[in-house]
Amino acid sequence: MNFDKVIMVDWSGGNDRGPKPVKDAIWAAIGSGGQAGEPVYLRNRQVAEAWLIDTLTDFRARGERVLVGFDLCFAYPKGFAAKLIGREDTLALWDWFEAKVEDSPTKNNRFDLAGEINAKFPGVGPFWFNGLPRDISHLPRKGTQRAGHGLPEKRAADLAIKGSFSPWQLAGAGAVGGQVIMGLPMLARLRKRFTDALSVWPFEAPDTQIVLAETYFSLLPDLVQDEPHQIKDAAQVSLYARVFSALSGKATADLMAVQATSEGWVLGAGETEVLRKALDKLPPRLKNDCFAMPQGAYWTPVDEALAHLEAHLHPVTGTQSVSIADASGLILAEDVMAARSHPPAPNAAVDGYAFAGPAPEGLNELPLVQGRSAAGVPYEGTVPDGHAIRILTGANVPDGVDTVVLQEDTTVDEDTLRFYGPLKKGANARNAGEDMTIGQPILAAGRKLTPGDIGMIAAAGVGQVTVRRPLRVGVLSTGDELVPPGASARDAQIFDANGPMLAALAAEWGHDVIPLGRAPDDRDALREMLNDATRSCDAILTSGGASAGAEDHVSALLSDTGSFALWRIAMKPGRPLVLGMWNETPVFGLPGNPVAAMVCALVFSAPALRVMAGGGWRKPEGYLLPAEFSKSKKEGRTEYLRARIQNGCVEVFPSEGSGRVSGLSWATGLVALSAPAQTIAPGDPVRYIPFADFGR
Ligand code: AMP
Ligand code: MG
Question: What is the enzyme's class at the highest EC level (predicted)?
Fold first, then answer.
């Protein structure tokens, strides 16, 4: 039961709470792969319903499966619907409430409606707690005033949860009754709007694209304080969005496998250990100071900067189980063990005849037994002493024999096999387990799966592997001068080259790219865009605005977060590299100049993102090849030259000017010249690193 997205909603029975985020309003958070986006504040029910419809419509269009969890009783205790609407049908009861409830941001009829309902039941109740100053007929102020209404106080699921409230209590600290009356109409409308694409668990089979479920936001009370949100409702939706999206498909299916009654069930009730475990498996977040490097007056050598990244980053994505058919290019989150030995039994490497080896030098003559051993159809008997048997490539070597002579080296006449020796014992036969043995670790966590890996895993009998969810990398260009490629542009404007280029790079590195467009040179606008981006991204690559000038808003904003680090790296090309955490999301502030942006992305972002994606640190090796060029280089900086291979030698782009974007296309890689002064003459070995090697 895999959901791509989980939305957790904390509903409310109160009136509009105003424009500024406050507690006891409606809050929602979207989770995926164990990570939650920034909680969304929804000031009233009308706004919240519109947001839900928009969000679900969007996910639906993208083909994503969504679980929507509400901290809201979906049903009343047994017998209520039967008495009120004539049948014990919870979803029909929702429609009844939808027809009766009147709602607006400032006013609703929940107390009057509760009194009206009570009037239909014998005795006093079941609803109680009139929260209004005026008396309402049939609605007692105290629970103890109720008697004889004939309904249970709680549902079975409520009894399974410590501290749960009865839906009959309409108001007072912790009460849930008011929001239930004010929530059911919204649920009824969602059902009508999304019709067949939506189901309500557990009343309907949860096999649709959208599944609504009731849950309870006090299942893991001790964990709420760990969420990075001041307002408790925000922390709760964030926590449960993480928890429910961290569950494996199997765990979700298990939680959903309950007997449906008219009372419904609370997703996760009584299963808090399962929820906790899902969360345990998630990696911790990056620390806010992970980019803080000791600042000296000197320029940091490239290797020192890389060593810092290696030491301070770790995987941040959750895990999922995927079929090996979908696993190429993904990163293993757990070791893979051979499920069976390979080959599982001794088999023939060629077509020929099997006999008990060795065969002595000279002519060998052996009687053939009837039958043969073919791939998939082995010979079941034992070959008698001194006999041979027909065998085909890949067939099990039968009992009694161990060596195979190649068909082309034999003649067969009247059931006698003849060939010339010598042939060693075991020739042309493969031993059981000679390639892999059952239980043996064949690939380690952190491995980025190659097509060859997929073949090996398949041969070892493994069909599913646990991998990291892809890292979501946002790409944002900054600058007032930027216009989208292909648009019309004035002379003072330039086309955004970095956005598409960095997006293409990150995609090649195997990440999920989230294009974030272009930000103007305006601090507030950039702040908003970064805030938005951190809802959906695990890391953000920006370009431009990363120096210390008046229009360098990326540096300016990050420097206010307390996590800002300006890395002055001794390299060419490349101006300072700006790193920082924005809402706990790492931002790599790359230079605006496209050549510098690409080189810095290759050298720093590629390995950093690889670690965050779960792939471990990897330094691109490159190759030593003879130079075709001459160059003399001063001491101090590492220089990266755009380069390509021609006739076995490395040539470099004629202009080192970093404004020449065409050189990025001309080149197939970089030549890295280390810090010491050096003079390179044609024929001298230089280190050439193909572009593809950086993010592999
Ligand atoms: P900045 O770092 O913002 O001062 O930009 C440095 C240089 O790079 C300026 O000439 C910018 O116009 C140019 N630049 C910045 N962003 C981009 C981009 N996305 N595409 C192409 N050029 C850019
Ligand atoms: Mg700029």
Answer: transferase
**252 φ, ψ to 5°?**
-65, -45
Output the residue whose Cα is nearest ligand 1's atom 10: 593
Question: Are both 198 and 239 inside the same structural domain?
Answer: yes
Question: Is 144 domain-assigned?
Answer: yes
* CA-wise closest residue to 473 among 525, 536, 557: 536
Domain check: are 579 and 523 in the same one?
Answer: yes
For residues 603 and 652, state if they share a domain.
no
Report CA(478)–ligand 2 centroid distance (Å).
6
400-455: per-residue pLDDT in tens? 999 999 999 999 998 999 999 999 999 999 999 999 999 999 999 999 999 999 99
pLDDT, tens only, 562-575 = 777 778 888 999 77
| Residue 618 placed within a domain | no
User: Band of the pLDDT at 285, cuts 50, 70, 90?
Assistant: confident
Nearest to 680, CA basis, from 651, 660, 653, 656 = 651
Measured in Å, residue 289 CA sits from the centre of ligand 2 at: 26
- Of all ligands present, the nearest one to the C-alpha of 592 is 1
Give the H or E element holding residue 57. Answer: helix 45-61
> Do both 426 and 441 map to the same domain?
no
Structural domain includes residue 489: yes
Q: How far is the CA of 557 from the centre of ligand 2 (A)?
A: 14
The structure tokens 């959903």 sit at: 256
The beta strands (E) that lie in 249-345 are given as 319-323, 336-337
- Give the C-alpha separation, 29 to 5, whole Å: 10
Residues 526-557 have pLDDT tens digits of 999 998 888 778 999 999 998 888 889 998 89
Q: Of 612, 646, 677, which one is at a domain's C-terminal end?
A: 612
Residues 592 and 454 in one domain: no
Q: Is the pLDDT of residue 174 over 90?
A: no
Domains in the chain: how many in total?
A: 6
- Say what angle helices 45-61 and 184-194 make with each other, to 10 degrees: 30
Residue 193 has which token pair?
A: 């709007």
Question: To test the ligand 1 pocket, which listed residue (480, 494, 551, 588) has its Cβ within 8 A of the most ligand atoms?
Answer: 494
Using the mean position of ligand 1's atoms as its centre, give its distance from the Cα of residue 588 in Å: 15
CA distances 691 to 148, 617, 665, Å, are 79, 17, 11
Predicted TM-score of the model (pTM): 0.70
- For the chain, how long is the longest CA-to-CA vector? 114
The binding-site residues of ligand 1, defined as CB within 6 angstroms of any ligand atom, are: 477, 479, 481-482, 494, 496-499, 543-547, 591-594
Three-state DSSP at 635 gives coil
Separation of CA 596 and ligand 2 centre (Å): 13
Take residue 86 and report the two structure tokens written for it: 């004539």
Which residue among 498, 521, 553 has the greatest number of ligand 1 atoms within 8 angstroms of its CB, and so is best to mutate?
498
What is the reported pLDDT for 504? 98
Question: Which structural domain, as residue segments, surrounds residue 237?
Answer: 5-72+189-280
